[in-house]
Amino acid sequence: MLAWTIYLSFAGALVQALLPKGKAELSRWLALAVTVAGLALAVAGFAAGMGQGRVIIADVPWVPAMGIHYLLAADGISRVLVLLTGLAAVAGVLFSWNIELRTNEFFAFYLALIGGVYGVFLSFDLFLLFVFYEIAIVPKYFLIAIWGSTRREYGAMKLALYSFVGSSMVLIGLLAAYATAGSHSTSLIALSHANLPVNFQMWCFPLVFTGFAILAGMWPFHTWAPTGHVAAPTAASMLLAGVVMKLGAYGCLRVGIWLFPRGLDPWGFSFIGVGSWRDVFAILAVVGIVYGALVALVQTDFKFVIGYSSVSHMGFVLLGLMTLNQIGMTGAVMQMFSHGIIAGLLFAIVGRIVYERTHTRQLAELETMHLSKRLPFATWSFVIAGMASMGLPGFSGFVAELQVLIGAWSVKPWWTLAAGVGIVVGVAYTWRAMQKAFFSDKLPTPDEHPKTGWPDLGAITWPEYTGVALLVGVSLFVGLYPRILLDAIEPAVKTLLAGGGQ
Amino acid sequence: MNYTDLFRATLPETALEVAALLVLVLDLSLMRKAALKARVAAAALLGIAGCGAALWAVLLQGNQGLVFKDTGEFLLTTGGYAAVAQAGILVLTALTLLLLVGEVFTHHIGEYVAVVLMAAAGGLLIAAAQDLLVIFVGLELLSLGLYILTAFAKSSGKSAEAALKYYLFGGMSAAFLLFGFSYFYGLSGSTNLAEIQRAIAASGPSPLFYVAWILVVAGLGFKVAAVPFHLWAPDTYEGAPAPAAAFIASVSKVASFALLITLSLNWLAPGQGHGSLAFLGGVYQTWPALATILLVIAAASMMVGNLAALVQVSVRRLLAYSAIAHAGYILLGIAVHPVYNWQESLISFTQSARGPAALSANAVLYYILTYGLTTIGAFGVVDVVERATGSDRLDAFLGLHKRNPVLAAVLLVLFLSLAGIPPLVGFWAKFNLFAAVLANSAGVVPFRLVALAVALSAVSLYYYLQVLKRAYVMPAVNETPIKAHPVTLAVLVGIAAAVVLLGCFPAWLQGWIGSF
Fold first, then answer.
1. Are B442 and A179 a contacting pair at CB < 8 A?
2. Domain-by-domain residue ranges, chain A?
3. Domain boundaries in chain B?
4. What is the pLDDT of residues B445-462, one digit of tens each?
5. How many angstroms away from the CA of B343 is the closest CA of chain A?
6. Neighbour-count burial of A18, counting CB atoms closer than 10 A to its CB (0-12 exposed, 13-18 middle, 19+ buried)
7. How far is CA B482 from the centre of its chain?
8. Mutate to test the interface with A, among B414, B454, B509 (most CBs of A within 10 A)
9. Which chain B residues have a beta carbon less than 8 Å from that of A131?
10. Which residue(s) pair with B68 in the sheet?
11. Chain A: residue whose CA lies nearest to B457
12. What integer pLDDT is reported at residue B35 of this predicted model?
């Protein structure tokens, strides 16, 4: 059933590409129908998979000469991320309801991207996963370059090249693993039992992990993320932050950690306290958390604040992965889901609801606009989203970050301490942006009050209401009842940690 | 060897030559007064029929060959990888002929098609040749045809300039090649590849052998446009009429790489322990220097091709540099190629081998055939745009998605395939090749070169996107629709569909190549 999410999205993309020009309305409804159907399938698949372990969905020989199978499967982690993709896809369509330029092409690229993302989360064959991973790169480029804003061609090219360099590193690693394992199967399940030599894992793990982590926004390879997010049209930023960065983190987990577990072993010597690749990447993750938060604190562009906050939040995911314990890694997957929802919501508010009405994202200009009075819906949505983003209890972010921090504490307490600093700064930048953008009472010129009242900013449309309600609802629901996801994630993480080949 | 054998073995070549003569007769006598359109259609159809007949002959031939009576060695083989290359040459030739429809660069359409068919016959010969003399005859037949085709746009100065450059470089490289061949003959007393191999294996490689090999590599490096013998390629690609450029970029490459497979199967095979270079990981038990030369050229081609393509403003030159880069990838596959027992006869090898060597030869063939297909399509698109805008500059592609959405979509598919994005066929070509290289040799150097190749294909995405960016992203300067001839458009869409389908089902072509 879950496999149909992939086919449906690609079929939708094809239909959109063939749609005659000038049928914007039809194209929108079609995109909404396809993504809603995808979400329905994802929910149904999630519900059906409750309490089950890994389920093989499809297994057909694809390239028999090399042992490559078209192998789709789903475990708890996949199901959670497929669900996230479904939600983000629907929300993205709702918030791009106002795309008028080349609408059908927009949704064609959009659905192709979604199809690739579904494919990655469901692939259990090394090269099938890679194929879907690369399919997701090209639509991103066109989405940003054609429909983007600030420095869009630069942002799009940077993102495409970063992604492609990352996937080249992954490909080199995968080819080497394939050649070294010498097995005639490229299924992840088989390869995780392949007992690859430790010294091979020692160099292949960092290569593959870094390759994937580039897309997860790992410091110092994160620079594509803020520029890409800012340049992208709203729906694309939502998808970038919501699911595409998760592709990278998912690859780190599913391929990097699962196939090369010994790559995380201690080197046998330590250099200023760093004694394994695990330490290296954990430190990079912590640096990312703190650095992203600090940089977000001084941004003048509203969207850059959110962009850097994504880098910070994705740091939690990577840190959670590096704890290598049950609670930390569960937290990492939780954080992927939670950040996907919350970042999507933040980008939607900043990029669609506010920007499309004020035509500025400069905090200094927004300060003079008294948005709390003029756009109360946007204001309160942002307050809720900001609280969720800070990790307030009751929202999904709290459950996720707490678990990551607990997991990290049991490994090295100072990781938790440093990440805690990141959380505090996170409160500060969210507060600052909220205050400046919505609650400031500055006036354009100090002594003059507008006499005729503010010009009308335009009413909030139904897609915006629906989208915000969807995302806020999900974040609250998961925050209040996290078991629904944890029950799926925990056994999957357990299996993964038990691993093969040791 | 009697004439029946000769006729049977050269049936495909004969079919092409007969078709060439028929085209000449038809065009110069019966249809002399007919309209150009009709003449183009007739000549192209007849040429395609000739290709079809030759293809039929190739597929029916089976694994045998033409044996030279005195020595019992092959002059020509049929079947095996040679048949795959020949079938590829014929299909690609037919496609380039289809691109002729609607062309206006010449009135001498009969001569053009005849020369194409004769050059293709040369390609068939060198794909199957097992003897230095046959190789040389085939190469010259192909090359002379290519020089003429390059110069065919008589009213264009660029075309003449390109042809002259191509001819001068080509003549020199042929001289190198012949000089190298003469050394081989001098060293072994034979012109047969297998005999040369045996003679040298018996006596051990003398320094002269390396000299001869370097000369041969220089000659063939020119044919496949490998650095540092690549200088002709950008000029020729830019100046030649588009169908001719497509022919040079595809058919001539297939034939030359098939020849390189033949040579490397015969000469790079590990033999009776002539030492090894430790840094190559001990894979090359014999004559490691030969493979090393190829590896150096491969690395240089990948680097120069990809980096130089970054700064091109002419799309044809961009395609030329990208062709140089692709030649580098393929040479990598050739260089770390053959780990097969050469003492078995060639025929039993082609029939039975399913080992690493077969994998690698198949990967090279897969790469070059799909690359040829893609590049013909790319030249087809460039040609249509060029005829409408008068230029092949990057800026001529501005707003192509508005001016002709179908053409833009074809361009998107083909260029992404060239960049190696899955699920298009270019990805599998690279993937097969690199996997075969790694499977054949666990050495450090091949692995680093594969890493370099993969890294450079990331670079290549940049310049392919430069073209696509203009077609899709940047605003159009001129929005008048670009008209393409329906046949041309159908061919281009067909090629793009093939690129997608072969990419989604990579096992089809692999299985077909493996079945020979």
1. yes
2. 3-445+457-497
3. 3-514
4. 778 888 899 999 888 999
5. 26
6. exposed
7. 30
8. B454
9. 422-423, 427
10. B73
11. A168
12. 85
**CA–CA min distance B456, chain A (Å):** 9
DSSP string, B430-458: HHHHHHHHHHH---HHHHHHHHHHHHHHH
Interface probe, candidates A131, A165, A184, A207, chain B, greatest B C-beta count within 10 A: A131
Tens digit of each residue's pLDDT (9 = 90 or more) over B25-42:
998 888 888 888 888 888
pLDDT tens, position by position, B394-442: 888 998 888 888 999 999 999 999 998 888 999 999 988 888 887 766 5
Phi and psi, residue A70, nearest 5°: -85, 90
**Best residue in B332, B359, B398, B431 for a mutation probing chain A (most A CBs within 10 Å):** B431
**3-state secondary structure labels for all residues of B67-106:** EECCCCEEEEECCHHHHHHHHHHHHHHHHHHHCCCCCCCC
B458 interaction partners in chain A (CB closer than 8 Å): 161, 164-165, 167-168
Q: Decide: A1 and A58 in contact? Cβ < 8 Å.
A: no
Strand B65-68 vs strand B73-77: parallel, antiparallel, or unpaired?
Answer: antiparallel
**Residues of B within an 8 Å Cβ radius of A:** 359, 401, 409, 416, 421-423, 427-428, 431-432, 434-435, 438-439, 442, 447, 450-451, 454-455, 457-458, 461-462, 465, 469, 472-474, 506-507, 510-511, 514
B59: its two tokens = 């597929």
As a whole number of angstroms, the distance between CA A362 and CA A360 comes to: 6
This prediction's pTM = 0.90
- Which stretches of B277-390 are DSSP H helices? 288-309, 315-335, 346-352, 356-389
Strand-pairing partners, residue B192, are B131
Distances (CA, A) of B202 to B97, B187, B195, B276, B452: 47, 11, 10, 17, 37
Query: Would you say how long chain B is, in residues?
Result: 516
Phi, psi of A430 (to 5 degrees): -65, -45
Residues in chain A closer than 8 A to B507 (CB atoms): 61-65
| Distance of alpha carbon B76 from alpha carbon A439, whole angstroms | 85
- CA A107/CA A274 separation, integer angstroms: 46
Residue A175: list chain B partners with CB under 8 A.
Answer: 431, 434-435, 438, 450, 454
Return the residue of A nearest to B446 by Cα.
A176
- Tokens 């060639």 belong to B346
